[in-house]
Write a structure and sequence with these properties.
- The chain has about 250 residues and is mainly alpha-helical.
- Helices cover about 60% and strands about 10% of the residues.
- Strands 1-2-3 form a 3-stranded antiparallel beta sheet, with helices on one face.
- Its main location: cytoplasm.
Amino acid sequence: MKYEDNLKLTLQEEETLKSAKKMLLLPACVNEKLLFEALCHKSYVFDNENIQRRLNSNERLEFLGDAVLELVISEFLHNNYYLSEGEMSKARAIIGSEVILAEVALKLGLDNFIFLSKGEDKQSGRRKKSILSDTMEAVFACIYISCGYEKVKKYIIKNMKEYIENAVGGNIFLDYKTRLQEITQEKAKKLPEYVLLNASGPSHMKRYKVAVKLGDEILGIGEGFSKKIAEQLAAKIACEKFLDSVGENNGVD
């Protein structure tokens, strides 16, 4: 992939990139102008491109990063776990999902460094799972191009090992909320309610605690770096508890 090294960055863009390299703990070999492309949402390109300055959005890098991530996760699962092809496919799908990648991005503080248009920023673009996950994959591609496979593999495993282990161990299921709704409708004729208990930590690493309730009873509490993950983890606990209470805990996966 050819990248234009003569691209002129603004002072603010340069400062953001320097902060991003430091805060995201990126390898020193990462090319800053390629990183700029990785962090550029299409809305920013539309607002800031002109005849003297041609900008690229991160869409092409996101495409490559998706493939890089798939290879890294596939290799790690193959080399470290004795799983069937189906089990590896299921785990890889969970680990590489939009929900998990957005969670990783928020944990790293990537949302602070994405270049967005003013309009997209005002519409909470930095918290959108699609933007976060796509940008995370673009960053993976940036590391791969700048530094090679071994560096990007090390970076991905370092920041995603917890999610890999949880996915393999059956501790992450991406649709516990739907499963819980089905259970409660069938058994109690009620719908669960999700309540935000608190949000703590600095803005770039805010952690959410969510409770899922059925009537006045709290069935589960989950915590995560996004409300979506916290809700899913709370729903997982609730599924297990609710099925236990009716003597039908044969697993919710």
